[in-house]
Design a protein that fits this description.
- The protein is α/β, with parallel strands linked by helices.
- It has 2 domains: 103 residues, Glycogen Phosphorylase B (Rossmann fold, 3-Layer(aba) Sandwich); 153 residues, Rossmann fold.
- It has 12 helices and 10 strands.
- The strands form 2 sheets. It has a 6-stranded parallel β-sheet with strand order 7-6-5-8-9-10, sandwiched between helices. A 4-stranded parallel β-sheet has the order 1-2-3-4, sandwiched between helices.
- α1 crosses α3.
- The radius of gyration is 20 Å and the shape is globular.
- The two termini are 14 Å apart.
């Protein structure tokens, strides 16, 4: 059986009921955050890892996190399998003329996603526009802060979109802002944006630079001034935008969801053969 998440949901019930059935668990970034902050979540994570034949993690940085939280007892069970994305037939976002960029931030709006840094960066620039697509606990705070910074005409908030609808919007933008502050398990929506040709301006948190490759530019987490400088640099150089669009699409091709599925299927067969 496959158990999603190491800290909540049904994974613990599966672990206790598994008996002789081999269990492959899948770790997510929220598991690491919860287990770092709460002792109960850490105990649950340890029990699930103890009961697992393998624990799938999307990056080496995530493997390090699980290994640390389990005291290094099960390093041999941790297997890095990068998440995958469905690849479009061709990129839908292309470099556009003009010195003012249309930027997008998409995903869950919580403290760790740190969308407020994107808004504060926009306040340090001139002429660019940011669309925030998503929902979460920080939404009202973000709307209020944008108003306090007199950005109501340059920051637009839109509700969460199903993935296929979001994919259709990527062609409306010049770059994605990805502002995670502490831990990013993989950066799925950022890779999806790359698959459609969007460069990503991302915080330099563990693992993310490896995932996004040369199809993006990084800045120190939480540093709005540094992000604003990247935005202006990108806006001033059409040649850089062209190179980043090409590099983003090329990087995403190494994250084909078919590769992920094949790797997990092979790992599952190994687990079942070991049980027999």
């Amino acid at each position: 059986m496959h158990a999603q998440h190491l800290g909540f949901g049904l994974a613990l019930a599966f672990a206790r009921a598994a008996g002789g059935t081999p269990m492959v668990s899948v770790a997510h970034g929220t598991d690491i955050i919860a287990a770092t902050e709460h002792e109960q979540a850490r105990a649950v994570l340890n029990e699930i890892v103890d009961a697992s034949v393998y624990v799938i993690v999307p990056t080496a940085a995530m493997a390090d996190g699980v290994n640390r939280l389990t005291g290094g007892r099960h390093a041999d069970r941790l297997v890095v399998v990068p998440w995958g994305v469905p690849l479009p037939a061709a990129p839908t976002a292309h470099p556009r003329p003009g010195k003012h960029l249309s930027l997008v931030h998409a995903g869950r709006l919580d403290g760790n996603k740190d969308t407020i840094t994107a808004i504060e960066a926009l306040a340090r620039t001139t002429g660019h526009h940011l669309t925030v697509i998503g929902s979460g606990s920080e939404l009202e705070t973000l709307i209020r802060h944008a108003a306090e910074l007199n950005l109501t005409d340059r920051v637009t908030f839109e509700p969460f979109l199903p993935r296929q609808d979001l994919f259709q919007r990527f062609g409306d933008f010049d770059a994605m802002l990805f502002t995670t502050r502490t831990l990013e398990a993989y950066g799925l929506v950022a890779v999806e944006a790359q698959a459609h040709g969007l460069p990503v301006l991302h915080s330099d948190v563990p693992g993310l630079a490896v995932t996004l490759g040369t199809g993006g530019l990084s800045f120190p987490p939480g540093d709005a001034a540094a992000l604003a400088s990247l935005i202006d640099t990108l806006a001033a150089s059409p040649a850089t935008r062209q190179l980043l669009h090409q590099a983003a699409a090329a990087n995403a091709r190494s994250h084909d969801i078919a590769h992920t599925a094949a790797h997990i299927a092979a790992l599952s067969r190994t687990a079942m053969e070991g049980a027999r």
